[in-house]
Amino acid sequence: MKPEEDKLRVIQMMNDPQVFEDLRIVRALGLPQSCIAAGYVRNRVWDKLHGYTIATPLNDIDVIYFDPKNTLEERDEHLELFLNRKQAGRNWSVKNQARMHIRNGEAPYSSIEDAMSRWPETATAVAIRLNDEDQMEVICPHGLNDLLDMRVRQSPLFRHTTAFRHRIFEKQWLDNWPLLIVEN
Question: Is the pTM of this model over 0.85?
Answer without folding.
Answer: yes
